[in-house]
Write a structure and sequence with these properties.
single chain, 564 residues, alpha+beta, 15% strand
């Protein structure tokens, strides 16, 4: 049975002489809500058509812009229109009954208002009488004035059509707040959501204009706020396995380095994640291998090209022998990046590809420490002329390979942890050089350690994270997730990784990835975000993104939005 036949049946059920407005009392159940919605739009549209003193052919045919009406159903649509137009009951009574029918359902009432704006603008003019009518109806529906102005801005050429009004947000809102509103509006515009609210399938064409309007508003705001820069840190598990020796992306059915994930699936998932985080610069941890016969930068730039990423320029500093490089993938129109290692051989704080002398075991003898993955030191200049230092790091505490018993496991583990903490001390010494020089600094990466991660933290007194952040009373770096984990007394802490423990047949989650900043950058920071598939509401609600995050890597991206 078509929508219009069901409407005809609803009208036939009215008692002789009964007002059309009474029909809304019988259309509250889910199957008939679409009938009620359609009658509501047509009936209020008919009342509004009289608001400018005339009923034109344009306004009558405007219903075709809201509903798909077959030729054989035109008579039923016209019957509703004429009954409402001739009904002595005022539009206020209609609006009140409709508001009662959709009580507490703001989305449906906004959908209805949108249909009325379509009809109001059908003749190309927005009359004062129509504006008063629509504003009164919106008030009866209980919609705030900001909602009404947002709708009017999308439909009326002479209205104040600034993008903030279209999205219903304040110009003082942060980018993350605006992004959340925009994403929510996109979700609510999905046809399935609209049908669930009672909008008939015949009226779904309204969603097309709405999607265009809200996306245009979002694009205008992002262009206007080009000074807001997004920096990301992302550890991609076995990224190298997705490329051949020529740096070509291998999207085939062979297994990747990820557990139970084919190369094509991991590549596709990574492409989607990189597109969604849409960062100006991404510090890629475990980037593709770079040596005499393979180019990690070429592999990353080919990946960016394959998925049309604007961050398409890659930079690698000191290479290593682990097949896991540290690289920056960035948008060359937004910033320039230069590998700029600090220090010289023989300095107390040498370059990160050299050897650092430190007494590891308190025997009054210096031990030599080297990075298996030398941190990537960068000089960054934004397109707006802002300068900062950036250090990408991947600290590593090796597993106790070769241990034959519990005692050896403990001894090897302690020795490995000493080396990792020594690397953190080395990195912290470099941090202090930058902070003492008054330079804006960002340290980001996978530190493979964190507050309360394991029993060795208690043995040594503090974690690598605390060493790099700095002690109270000294110039410190800041990361809100680290601060939250350090201050926790009860409850969960943020996590950036998820590993499957085969022996225990369960997953372990941990906070391993950080974006630490100096005080001057901290006060430019708008939003830190962990793109966690379960803990971040937007990631959880977006099934495609959620699945991509779980398929792409055992770590999740961390982003920071900076307002320069």
């Amino acid at each position: 049975m078509s929508l219009w036949t069901r409407i005809s049946d609803a009208l036939a059920a009215l008692a002789n002489g009964e007002s059309l407005s009474q029909v809304f009392n019988t259309l509250r159940s889910a199957p008939e809500r679409s009938v009620g919605f359609t009658i509501a739009v047509i009936a209020l549209g008919a009342k509004m058509a009289k608001a400018d003193g005339q009923v034109t052919r344009d306004e009558v045919t405007a219903f075709r812009e809201v509903f798909n009406i077959a030729e054989e159903d035109e008579a039923n649509a016209a019957k509703v229109f004429n009954m409402a137009r001739l009904d002595v009951a005022g539009y206020e009574e209609y609006a009140a009954r409709i508001a009662d029918m959709f009580e507490g359902e703001k989305g449906t009432l906004c959908d209805l208002m949108e249909g009325l704006f379509h009809i109001a603008m059908a003749d190309g003019f927005y009359h004062p009488g129509e504006n008063e009518f629509l504003q009164q109806v919106a008030g009866i529906f209980g919609l705030p004035d900001t909602e009404f102005r947002a709708l009017r801005a999308r439909f009326v050429p002479d209205a104040e059509a600034d993008p903030y009004t279209v999205l219903g947000v304040s110009p003082d809102s942060t980018m993350e707040q605006i992004r959340q509103v925009w994403r929510a509006m996109v979700r609510e515009t999905h046809p399935d959501r609209m049908i669930a609210r009672g909008v008939p399938e015949e009226a779904i064409r309204m969603a097309e204009k709405r999607m265009v309007d809200i996306n245009r508003a979002w694009e205008e705001i992002t262009k206007e706020r080009a000074c807001v820069m997004r920096i990301a840190c992302y550890n991609v598990e076995w990224f190298d396995r997705l490329f051949d020796d020529e740096g070509q992306l291998q999207r085939d059915t062979r297994w990747s380095g990820r557990r139970d994930v084919k190369r094509a699936d991991q590549a596709k998932a990574l492409g989607h994640v990189f597109q969604r985080i849409d960062a100006d610069a991404i510090m890629v941890i475990e980037a593709p291998d770079d040596h005499q016969h393979r180019s990690g930068t070429r592999a990353l730039e080919n990946f960016a090209k394959a998925y049309d990423l604007r961050s398409c320029k890659a930079l690698i500093g000191f290479t290593n022998t682990t097949q896991q490089e540290i690289a920056l993938l960035y948008d060359p129109t937004k910033l320039t990046a230069t590998h700029d290692p600090i220090g010289a051989l023989g300095d107390p704080v040498p370059p990160f590809n050299e050897t650092y002398q430190i007494d590891l075991d308190i025997d009054n003898r210096a031990d030599s420490v080297r990075f298996s993955k030398p941190p990537l030191e960068l000089a960054i200049e934004t397109a707006a002329g802002n300068n900062l230092r950036m250090i990408g790091a991947h600290l590593k505490s090796k597993a106790p390979h070769g241990a034959h018993n519990a005692a050896e496991v403990m001894r090897f583990s302690i020795a490995n942890r000493r080396k990792q903490l020594a690397q953190a001390v080395w990195l912290r010494a470099r941090v202090e050089e930058h902070l003492d020089a008054g330079e804006a600094l960002m340290v980001l990466g996978d530190l493979n350690d964190g507050p309360g991660l394991d029993e060795y933290e208690n043995l040594f007194g503090r974690s690598s994270v605390e060493i790099i952040l700095g002690e109270i009373g000294c110039p410190c770096l800041y990361d809100p997730h680290a601060a939250r984990a350090l201050a926790r007394k009860i409850g969960g802490e943020p996590t950036t990784s998820r590993f499957f423990l085969k022996k225990d047949n369960r997953y372990l989650q941990a906070l391993l990835d950080y974006i630490m900043v100096s005080d001057d950058l901290r006060y430019k920071a708008e939003t830190w975000r962990i793109w966690h598939p379960f803990d971040d509401p937007e990631c959880w609600e977006d099934l495609k993104l959620r699945d991509a995050l779980l398929t792409a890597s055992d770590h999740f991206p961390v982003t920071l939005d900076l307002d320069f």
